[in-house]
Input
Amino acid sequence: MSPHHEATPADPAPLYAIRLKGHLGCEWADWFDGLAVELTADGDTLLTGPVPDQAALHGLLKKVRDLGLPLLAVHCMAPNEKGVDGTHPQKETYP
Output
């Protein structure tokens, strides 16, 4: 590290959306490290929120595997991505 290097604030954790086949109850949010749990009309569950790093993402995916629910999609959302209000993507984001 050079003496002229200035510390910068850490980048915010990227937002992820994880779509599962089947409905989970909102009480699962704590088990999924505080991700928002949204039940969709087509019978899927959408987990959304910040994930600090790849290790945390793999831990979440391991929990999905342990539940036995089919994993439909994992999407890393850009902060300015159309249809994202900061925490939840709109349904049109996922086929």
User: Anything to note?
Assistant: Helices lie at 54-67.
